[in-house]
Specification:
By secondary structure, the chain is of the alpha/beta class. It has helices spanning 8-34, 52-59, 240-250, 268-278, 297-307, 329-332, 366-383, 397-400, 403-406, 409-421, 437-446, 466-475, 492-496, and strands at residues 41-42, 47-51, 60-63, 66-68, 71-74, 80-83, 85-86, 90-98, 104-108, 121-125, 158-165, 168-173, 176-182, 203-207, 214-223, 256-260, 281-288, 313-318, 337-340, 344-346, 352-354, 388-389, 425-429, 450-453. It contains 13 helices and 24 strands. The strands form five sheets. Strands 2, 4, 5, 8, 11, 12, 13 and 15 form an eight-stranded antiparallel beta sheet that branches. Strands 16-17-18-19-22-23-24 form a seven-stranded parallel beta sheet. The protein has a five-stranded antiparallel beta sheet with strand order 3-6-14-9-10. The structure holds zinc ion. Zinc ion (ZN) binds at residues 259, 261, 317, 455.
């Protein structure tokens, strides 16, 4: 497989670099004007706790900020709170609050910036609802381990934690680890991003535009020993898939496995750790439908409660066609998104079949079967209020060898048209390697949104989105082509409701 970067991304990457350049140039000018560079001290064997505007200004330089009720407020796009010291290894905690649309970042190891390219790393701050502003949310280790799940709300105080120990970076929001990264000996970096490496430097909280405000009430930083050894863990340069995941993050791609399952003994802590290590986020769902673990509103709410504070998207997998009769719209709408497939339906003779269970599948005539499958799919896409169509174009084993012939141009285009018309995203499924690259190319040209999914069966088949990465590169999928969950109050089920009866 030959992977390559699409020229298309170049503009976006240049945008990101320009953003950094603007930010770091500002820092350089500031240091020159104030002479801060000349009298820098390094943080050693100490903890500096600053509470309120007065104490913060003793240890941190405030630039273009304002104050109120003992808080430091960042409003302007050039507002910054910069450490008067440099630090290498440290544990930092900040108590922050954002107002709607505010975006900013917490840069570290920025050193004496040259202004030519980004230096050090930055943690993104943005608590806007999905589809507003950046797809990166608070705690995202920008362009390295992008994080897209909202863990804090606007207008509510939260604690942002950042720990740097040796080559290990950890970011927490209210104590939950959301991003984590082990910098390898030879990090993979796109051109222009070579400076995104660990060193020693300042810490700077900055605003990225003029929208909203970021409020700071407390900052505490504890120096850690300088000689913490590197951890010989390398998730970045060990093979093509690892490298591609790293590059996708740097291209600003929302690398999200929207189709993860806990199942058996796999815990949410284990699956999120796995995702952080390899460089993608998870959406977690339980199977909801007849003969599945969740069959009523009480169980649906209970599952939501179980995962609601976790750093994962909360999803509902709608099973069979009966699901529309089992749950109420208000509880379905709790979830970030819902998805279903066309693997279970009743055929024209009234036989309920699950396409992955060989004993249940009856194919008398391949063409007739395909026409029925497309017809059932259209009914699902047009009547069930789902966000993502998963396991798409799956065929029963007995006819799967003929996949390319059976999925004719016309059948592909019929399904693609229905996806567009009903605003349903298409899953690129890594488990079954479906739909075909040809299908994905046609869908991209038509403007379909994509969601990546592994659909793991348990703890032993956690993949790394291998087929999804191939498809992204071969079909030229860009970050803008990716599905992002609907904001609260705009869920499909809230305005479509549920069909009166099963769709097929
Ligand atoms: Zn599934």
């Amino acid at each position: 497989m030959i992977y390559y970067l699409w020229l298309y991304h170049t503009n976006q990457i240049i945008d990101k670099i320009m953003h950094y350049k603007k930010y770091f140039k500002g820092l350089t000018l500031f240091f020159l004007l104030t002479g801060v560079v000349a009298c820098t001290t390094a943080l050693k064997d100490e903890t500096i706790t600053s509470s309120g505007h007065g104490q913060i200004s003793e240890n941190w330089t405030l630039k273009n900020t304002s104050e109120s009720d003992d808080l430091v407020i960042l409003e302007r796009s050039d507002a910054e709170v910069i450490s008067k010291f440099t630090a290498r290894n440290f544990d930092l905690k900040m108590r922050l609050k954002t107002t709607p649309r505010a975006e900013g970042s917490l840069a570290f190891h920025t050193a004496s910036a040259t202004g030519s390219s980004p230096e050090g790393y930055s943690v993104f701050i943005n608590n806007s609802d999905y589809r507003s502003g950046s797809t990166e949310k608070t705690g995202s280790l920008s362009l390295i381990r992008n994080f897209h799940i909202r863990m804090a709300e606007d207008d509510e105080w939260f604690e942002l934690g950042l720990s740097v120990r040796g080559n290990h970076i950890t970011v927490t929001v209210d104590g939950k680890i959301v991003s984590e990264y082990y910098e390898p000996e030879n990090p993979v970096r796109l051109e222009g991003f070579e400076g995104m490496v660990l060193s020693e430097g300042r810490i700077a909280l900055g605003k990225s535009d003029d929208n909203g405000s970021i409020l700071v009430s407390d900052i505490s930083i504890e120096a850690m020993p300088e000689d913490i050894p590197r951890v010989a863990v390398d998730f970045e340069t060990t093979g093509e898939v690892a490298e591609q995941l790293t590059l996708l993050n740097q291209e600003g791609f929302p690398v999200i496995d929207y189709h993860g399952h806990l199942k058996d003994v796999l815990t949410v802590d284990e699956i999120t750790k796995y995702g952080r290590d390899h460089g993608f986020n998870y959406g977690i769902s339980e199977n909801c439908g007849l003969n599945f673990p969740v069959t009523d509103d009480a169980a649906l709410v209970a599952y939501y409660e179980k995962i609601k504070d976790e750093p994962v998207f909360k999803a509902m997998q709608c099973e069979g066609r009966e699901w529309v009769t089992l749950f109420s719209p208000e509880y379905i709408a709790l979830y970030d998104y819902i998805f279903t497939d066309a693997l279970t339906f009743t055929d024209h003779r009234g036989r309920r079949m699950r396409l992955w269970v060989q004993d249940e599948v009856v194919v008398e005539d391949e063409e007739q079967f395909m026409d029925m499958l497309v017809e059932r799919t259209l009914a699902i896409l047009s009547q069930e209020p789902v966000d993502i169509f998963v396991n798409p174009t799956f065929l029963p084993e007995e006819i799967n060898h003929n996949y390319d012939n059976l999925w004719t141009d016309q059948r592909m285009d019929t399904v693609i048209e229905a996806l567009i018309k009903n605003d349903v995203a298409l899953e690129i499924n890594a488990r079954y390697r479906i739909p075909s690259i040809e299908f994905i190319k046609r869908a991209r040209e038509a403007g379909v949104k994509f969601a990546l999914g592994t659909n793991n069966a348990g703890e032993h088949d956690l993949g790394r989105l291998e087929y999804c990465i191939e498809a992204i590169r071969e079909a030229g999928i860009t970050p803008e082509d990716m599905f992002i969950p609907r904001p609260d109050g705009e869920k499909k089920v809230s305005f479509m409701g549920l069909p009166e009866e099963v769709t097929g």
